[in-house]
Every structure is written in C-alpha cells, then in structure tokens.
Write a structure and sequence with these properties.
The protein has about 160 residues and is an alpha+beta fold. The chain has a domain at about 25-120: OB fold (Dihydrolipoamide Acetyltransferase, E2P) (Beta Barrel), CATH 2.40.50. About 15% of the residues lie in helices and about 30% in strands. The protein contains one helix and eight strands. The protein has one helix at about 1-20, and strands spanning about 30, 40-55, 60-65, 70-75, 95-100, 100-105, 105-110, 120. Strands 1, 2, 3, 4, 5, 6, 7 and 8 form an eight-stranded mixed sheet that branches. The longest helix is centred in the N-terminal third of the chain and has 21 residues, at about 1-20.
Amino acid sequence: MRTLLSLLVVLALASRLAAADTNAPAPSKIGTDDADKYYDQTMIVTGKVAQVTIRPTVTFLNMDKPYPNSPFTVVIFHGHSSFYGDANALKGRHIEIKGRIRKYHDKPEIALDNTNQLTVFGPPIPIVVPAAARPTNVPAASPSTTPTPPSTDSTNLPEIM
C-alpha cells in the first residue's frame, strides 16, 4: 500500500512539472529592427532574407538588408547544426528564427543549431532559367509525360540531401 502511495505522489509531481513546462510563456515575436533590444533573451525574430553568404565553415543569412547594413543575422556553423538544405534557396523568403539573441560585433544574431528553430513562409520562389541557358538540342517533353513533383507546402526546410 505504501508503494502505491509513493508511486501516486511521484506521478502527481511529474505531471505538475510537465504542466509547468507547458505553461511557460512562448517567446515573443519581434522584427529584425527590434532584436538589439533583447540580447541574451530567447525570442522569435521575423524578417526577409536579403543576402546569403556561404563561407567554408559558416553561412550567414543577413536579414532585411545586405551586409553591412543588415539589422540582424542568422548564423549557421557548418557541422554544428542540423541544417543541410540549400541556404541560397532562402534568399528573398520570409522566415522566423527562434533562439537566444547574441551580440556579435555590436549587432544581434541567432545561431541556428536545429532546423526546428527556423520557419519559412510562403511558396517556394520559382527558378527561371534564361532562354539562352536552355539546351537547344533536347526535344521538349509533352505535358502528359512530364512527371509533376509532389506539392509540399511545408514551412520547414527540405529534408537532408
């Protein structure tokens, strides 16, 4: 009987702790211009990717304006995150990034550690190939034989390539 009572007490405490975690306030959403007011706080920063810069060990997503005028930067350290998508595909897209805002060289940034931190909005931007770049000796496929890729309206990044 005593074991049963102890088990009930432990379960009650565990459910209370779980409820406390779920009742924690969600991070606030802010724009890129306000990020410098929230250093060392976990926030959701929203904006448009204006520039993608890929270096050997790090990728930078400069938000709203290209470097050096960007008010906020998303940093992706190669090998230290679960981001394996094509970062260039994010250029021009509206995104939200969730995480702790750090100050680096007097500017706010969030380092992407997990793709769950990043949400992409809107449909993918179509890629337009200039007519001059298209091969001329390949016959055009008829619409009935051209496979149609599955439509995905996911807000997260593409799966691992």
